[in-house]
């Protein structure tokens, strides 16, 4: 309290409830306190103090994470960055902006769009999540297919290390800095190597033209094939999204219904952007690919209002599951695009095995799947079944040559599943790096890497499943 003042610390039980978890609600823990910081110096002083008393701590942005990264396991101090929310500097001539970590993603685009610029990484949570949280999770989004994920847009970071030292990574105007790529290492490190206190990002010029297509399919395999065919035709859309019938049922019952036909198996939402002159040719090619793959109906958004509605319908897709299920678990696997039909069939088998519906929303263009396991936590045993079903979906992705996370991170949720894709030696090489930065494991302990107990349990379950 001496560092930040009494009104910037929460410690009463009733105040701490809101900080027991992030958007992944299956695991909860009570923090010791929540401290709201206003500047880098305060972060550094608090970290030094917590080190001296050996109390663990966690950085937290908006708490929209979906893997438990900002969730305390019990007794940590949460350092909340949400009041460090200034746009510090705009340099449009050199196409960059400097923000504090609590700056909300969407605000950046909103504050520069009238000048003809935008910030490309657009997680569907962009109206709430912070750029600090995006850096920690290396967040993606619908438009990352063409423009790349957060790491491709970060030019520099200021970081408070777990010993309280403040360092600057990356530097304005110096390309190809020699030495290790610490900027790359910190981005996506899920708040385990340091606390980000300032971020320099690239901003892009608004594309000259943009067109959006909606394609309805009777067979999900045809939709999947169209995705592959669009990319192999050499077209890189700005976004190439897909939803299956269960997901469509959810979005149509929620806040932004589009009026999608009720009986389709899937739709594709495809957006192309760039130099105005080339857009119509690309759209023609896409329409041809869709037709060659037995599309039932395909249409181009007639105006900006229609385009915005299609995107609102897609971007609120996770929350919309609340309209058809009391609870849902968001998964986040990656697969090679060409394996989509086979992986979807296997996810269907997982759904049957556990007796739980699974809706699928995907960034299909880059093979990033979000199976959403629908369940009712009030039914005894259903939460556990949902967790197991989610884990098996990730195993299906890993076995197809993919990964256990595309953008939501590992956090608590998928730490055991790291074994699906890494050997013990590979995990150790990563935990060794964490130990260099975070030797006492006081910063965000118990996250990202397997904890021995749960791992052994998961391995046993897998063996059993294989034997069946
Ligand atoms: C409806 C919904 C849709 C979503 N859609 C997407 C999507 O399309 N793409 C996507 O990538 N994600 C998506 N997410 C997940 C989430 O929004 C992102 O992971 C986001 O980057 C988290 O930001 P946050 O500010 O909420 O971070 P938090 O949840 O507060 O924290 C996330 C992690 O970052 C660490 N952290 C936070 N701030 C800092 C900091 N300053 N320094 C160091 N570590 C820090 C925390 O310790 C934690 O480990 C979605 C979430 C929801 C609820």
From TrEMBL:
Keyword Disulfide bond: no
InterPro entries associated with the record: FAD-bd_oxidored_4_C, FAD-bd_PCMH, FAD-bd_PCMH-like_sf, FAD-bd_PCMH_sub1, FAD-bd_PCMH_sub2, FAD-linked_Oxase-like_C, FAD-linked_OxidoTrans_Type4, Oxid_FAD_bind_N
Positions of the FAD-binding PCMH-type domain: 27-206
Keywords: FAD, Flavoprotein, Oxidoreductase
Cofactor(s) listed: FAD
Molecular function terms, GO-annotated: FAD binding; oxidoreductase activity
Domain of life, source organism: Bacteria
Record flagged with keyword Metal-binding: no
Pfam families assigned to the protein according to its UniProt record, in alphabetical order: FAD-oxidase_C (PF02913), FAD_binding_4 (PF01565)
Entry's transmembrane regions: none
Identification of the protein by name: FAD-binding oxidoreductase
Organism, scientific name: Pueribacillus theae
């Amino acid at each position: 309290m001496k560092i930040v003042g009494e009104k910037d610390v929460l410690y009463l039980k009733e105040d701490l409830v809101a900080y027991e978890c992030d958007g992944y609600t299956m695991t909860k823990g009570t923090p010791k306190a929540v401290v709201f910081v206003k500047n880098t110096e305060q972060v550094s002083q608090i970290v030094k103090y917590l080190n001296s008393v050996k109390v663990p701590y966690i950085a937290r942005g908006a708490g929209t994470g979906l893997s438990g990264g900002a969730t305390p396991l019990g007794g940590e101090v949460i350092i909340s960055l949400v009041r460090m929310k200034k746009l510090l500097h705009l340099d449009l001539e050199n196409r960059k902006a400097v923000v504090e970590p609590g700056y909300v993603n969407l605000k950046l685009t909103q504050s520069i769009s009238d000048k003809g610029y935008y910030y490309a990484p657009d997680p569907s949570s962009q109206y709430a999540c912070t750029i600090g949280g995006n850096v920690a999770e290396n967040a993606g989004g619908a438009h990352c297919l063409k423009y790349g994920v957060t790491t491709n847009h970060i030019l520099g970071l200021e970081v408070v290390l777990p010993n309280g030292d403040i360092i600057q990574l990356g530097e304005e105007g110096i390309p190809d800095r020699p030495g290790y790529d610490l900027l790359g290492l910190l981005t996506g490190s899920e708040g385990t190597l340091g606390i980000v206190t300032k971020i320099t990002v690239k901003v892009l010029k608004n594309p000259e033209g943009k067109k959006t297509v909606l394609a309805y399919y009777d067979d999900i395999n045809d939709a999947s094939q169209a995705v592959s065919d669009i990319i192999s035709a050499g077209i890189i859309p700005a976004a190439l999204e897909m939803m299956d019938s269960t997901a469509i049922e959810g979005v149509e019952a929620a806040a932004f219904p589009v009026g999608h036909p009720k009986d389709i198996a899937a739709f594709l939402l495809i957006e192309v952007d760039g130099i105005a002159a080339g857009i119509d040719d690309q759209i023609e090619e896409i329409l041809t690919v869709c037709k060659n793959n037995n599309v039932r109906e395909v249409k181009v958004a007639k105006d900006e209002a229609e385009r915005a509605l299609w995107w609102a319908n897609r971007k609120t897709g996770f929350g919309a599951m609340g309209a058809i299920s009391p609870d849902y678990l968001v998964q986040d696997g990656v697969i090679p695009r060409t394996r989509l039909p086979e992986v979807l069939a296997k996810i269907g088998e997982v759904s049957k095995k556990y007796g739980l519906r699974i809706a699928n929303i995907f960034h299909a263009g880059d093979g990033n799947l979000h199976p959403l396991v629908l369940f009712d936590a009030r039914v005894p045993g259903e939460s556990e079944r949902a967790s197991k079903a989610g884990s098996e979906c990730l195993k299906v992705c890993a076995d197809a040559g993919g990964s256990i996370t595309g953008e939501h991170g590992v956090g608590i949720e998928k730490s055991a599943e790291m074994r699906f894709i890494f050997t013990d030696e590979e995990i150790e090489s990563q935990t060794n790096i964490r130990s260099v930065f975070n030797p006492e494991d006081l910063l965000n302990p118990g996250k990202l890497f397997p904890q021995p107990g749960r791992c052994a349990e998961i391995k046993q379950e897998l063996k059993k499943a294989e034997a069946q």
